[in-house]
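[job 4471] stage=fold_predict status=RUNNING
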Amino acid sequence: MNYYSTNKNTPEVSLKEAVIKGLASDNGLFMPERIEKFDPSFFETIQNLTFQEIAFEVAKMFFGEDIPESKLKEIVFDTLEFDCPVVKVTGSIYSLELFHGPTLAFKDVGARFMARLLNYFLGEKKEQVNVLVATSGDTGSAVANGFLAVEGIHVYVLYPKGKVSKIQESQFTTLGQNITALEIDGTFDDCQRLVKSAFLDAELNEKLVLTSANSINVARFLPQAFYYFNAYARLKEQGILENKEFVVSVPSGNLGNITAGLFASEMGLPIKQFIAANNSNDVVFEYLETGNYIPRESVETIANAMDVGEPSNFVRILDLYNHSHKTVSEKIKGYRYSDSEIKKIVKKVYIETNYLCDPHGACGFESLNEFLSENQVGLFLETAHPAKFTETVEEIIGKGKVPLPSKLAEFMKGEKNSILLNKDFQGFKECLLESVTI
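[job 4471] inference complete, writing structure tokens
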């Protein structure tokens, strides 16, 4: 299958080229030339399949023309060595727990898949590939751990100084080996800008092989569709969706996660409504309400993975629905919550249900609480383990109430090693070019 740029000013490319390049040469994001639809009969028996089996069927629709079936199955099954269970929170609201992977965040799925797919495409390639990834928290740790010690690949993680949690920071600054952490004196949007600028710089691309592991890369965001299908299967398995409409609420920052869900819907997954749950970085909420998209500098919140003022994947959503505000606003409803509101939601849900949300999941839960009608079942994405935000969450519910999982405790033992850079491109460029002579 070929992939085109959302800017439509460059020729279509193969999956291999889209994955290795990451970003199109005209600064657009790659999109598949078509979206395959499942036969409705697939959903009649989907509950009989395991998570890995479902993911493999979905992966074949995306990548089956370009990767041998046996190899694709190996990649999918190796990626999903952990579960993403559906957990009941209230009578009609369920949590999709996406924090059971190695770094306890939803991005483990896409990052692990991309690492394995990129490794397959590189094959015997001897030239080092440099993976650039901007993170507002969880992306960096998922990508760093997904690519750790993979031969022929070096990862540069760009993160905003002082704007990620200590635990998140420890997950990518203590690894060493082929992982370099770049601490940028700026915001996530500055980090994302540096990454995109690198792909457009002729000298860098002449001397280095660059790719991105942010959700701008098709190999990162498309596999996130896997768990939407699995969530539907697990709810159907329990008879929960019988005669009910299915509503999904997605904590939304860079929009890769909800874009993957929209792709799942276009493939036939019967989701009645999507909700984009925002924090105070509400450019998407405002677009849905007014039709005006006005990017701006992000502001720091306690739901830091959503601190994005110019979400990259917005262009994919526009492209998917022919830039129609009417269609987009019908497909997606928007909600937004301030830090004080998020804290109240976390506490209220914990007291009333004994379920502990992280700050991002709390936004997802509350939007369902406000939106759902009697004939609907709601699923919100619990995108990271609450322990990744221990200080914030314990301030809300009380100290000592958020046990630190052993996986996170191990990361905290490591020594931080990062390179501090300003947000200007020249300093970042020089840092990358130094690696050529090392």
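[job 4471] summary: The first strand starts at residue 2 and ends at 5.
[job 4471] exit 0
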